[in-house]
Amino acid sequence: MQVGHLIKSRRLQMKLTLTEVAKRSGLSVPFLSQVERGEAGLSVQSLVKIAEALGVTLNYFLNVPEPDTPIRYAKDFHFFSLVESKTRMARIGSVDPSRQIEPVLSIVPPNYETELIQHAGEEFVYVLKGEIIVKLGRKQYRLSTGDTAHFKSGIRHRWRNPTNQEAHVLWIGTPKLF
Fold first, then answer.
1. Residue 156 needs a FRET pair 20 to 30 A away by CA distance; which of 36, 46, 114, 136 works?
2. CA-CA distances (angstroms) from residue 98 to 65, 70, 90, 94, 134?
3. Alpha-carbon distance 84 to 3, whole Å?
4. What is the pLDDT along the chain (178 residues), one digit of tens a residue?
5. Hey, what domains does the chain have and what are their CATH numbers?
């Protein structure tokens, strides 16, 4: 089932209008309408805002397994993508409810750019393979295999893979997402 359909179903179940969800989430009515129709993609941060507005966790919208162990084996990574997003992500950390960070393995496809976002918390990015350009405010930084970035998420930011090869990125952020 598509994320947009799940969002609409939950909204209708709660008897909320798009305007009410927009006010609760801080997102626009036109954007939410496009998401529900599957015509707009979502960042993780936008989905977090929608989930909070609808009183659910991200796991409500994503088929993400929740093992009860602090150990994660690479063979068990479950990759998922948000609607219309080409980036594949896998939760690679614990699901302990008291955790403070959210580590995610992201595979960024060639010539793909995320939306420009800002939110509470901080982020650490480590390029495992390939190249990405990280835009922080007005500055851009080209990162290659082995390079890192660590920044406050309140700075408007985005990633871009400027190459014809996948980029593999370890992202660790706060607050936890799932």
1. 36
2. 18, 12, 20, 10, 29
3. 10
4. 477 888 888 888 888 999 999 999 999 999 899 888 877 777 777 888 898 898 887 777 765 555 566 777 888 787 777 656 788 888 888 877 778 898 999 999 999 998 888 888 999 999 999 999 999 999 999 999 999 999 999 999 999 999 999 999 999 998 776 6
5. 3-60 (1.10.260.40), 74-173 (2.60.120.10)
